[in-house]
Amino acid sequence: MEKEHDRPASLDHPRAPRRPRGIPYFEKYAWLFMRFSGVALVLLALGHLFIMLIWDDGVYRVDFNFIAQRWASPFWQIWDMALLWLAMVHGANGMRTIIGDYSRKNVTKFYLNSLLLLATGFILVLGTYVLVTFDASIGVNQ
């Protein structure tokens, strides 16, 4: 039988911290995602800046034809898609954390998170649509 003094005092206190509700371990995985996506974003962004601004003639060669040639390669489409998705989800996760820290009311938190989800989804769908459906032939003069 359990003795009275073996129980933690926090179990008897009405304001004792409770187990968080929601998806188990979500905050842990969100924290891990921020760390790993941050490292990946640094590498992707530095590579992007190097290719676009320094390599060859740098920014002077960037025009529609350059982008059309670049996006003709699946490698660069995947590179830019990874940059878009990681940046948006990383930023949205950071904003979700800020909303959680500074929203006092659950209703405010709900509406701000809903707006954030809609905006993130819209930008991801639009950016993905542009990357997937890009047609280089529209730039050719007929």
TrEMBL record:
Compartment(s): Membrane
Residues spanning the membrane: 29-55, 75-98, 110-132
Signal peptide: none
GO cellular component: membrane
GO molecular function: metal ion binding
Keyword Zinc-finger carried by entry: no
Record's keyword terms, sorted: Heme, Iron, Membrane, Metal-binding, Transmembrane, Transmembrane helix
Superkingdom of the organism of origin: Bacteria
Protein name: Succinate dehydrogenase
Keyword Signal: no
SUPFAM superfamilies per the UniProt record, alphabetical: Fumarate reductase respiratory complex transmembrane subunits
